[in-house]
Amino acid sequence: MAASSDQRAELKGRRIFVVEDEYFLADDIGKAFRALGAEIAGPVGHLEDALEILHDGSVLDAAVLDVNIRNETIFPIARELRARNVPFLFTTGYDKITLGPEFQDVPLLEKPIDLAAMARKLAGLIAEQPIQ
Asked: DSSP assignment of 34-61, as one string?
C-alpha cells in the first residue's frame, strides 16, 4: 500500500481502534495501519470486546467500524466515540442509507475496501481534529 509522507506522519504512533468481524479483512486493516506506524486497538469482531476496549481507559485516536457486527449494529460504539470526539469511519457491504440520519456525516467505505483510500481518509480525519 503506497502512502504519502503526510499519511505516515498523521498515523505514526496513533492508536487506531478496529472493529471488524470478517477475520481476513480485520487482519489486513491491522497490517496496513501498522505498516504506517500506527498502533492497533483490536481488531475485535464482537461488540462486547469493542466495549471492553472502549472502557479500558486507553487513548483512542481514531476508529474503523464495520456497521454490522455479527447481526448487531455498531452504533452504540459510534455514539460513544462521537461523544469523546474520536474520529471514525464506517465500513459496510450495504448502502449509506443503512446509517440512518444520525450518522450520514460519517465517512463510509463500501466493501471490498481499498486500504490505501481508508488510510488517506482516516489520516484526514485525524488531521482535522483540534489540537488538545
From this structure: HHTT-EEEEEE-SHHHHHHHHTSS----
Distance between CA atoms of 96 and 116, rounded to whole angstroms?
20
CA distance 116 to 71: 27
Cβ–Cβ < 8 Å for 87, 128:
yes
Asked if the 10-127 domain carries CATH number 2.60.40.10, the reply is no
Name the one residue in this structure whose C-alpha cell is 469511519.
Answer: 89
Residue 43 preceded by cis peptide, ω within 30: yes
- Would the pTM of this model clear 0.90, i.e. be above it? yes
Domain boundaries, the chain: 10-127
85-112 residue pLDDT tens: 999 999 999 888 888 899 999 999 999 9
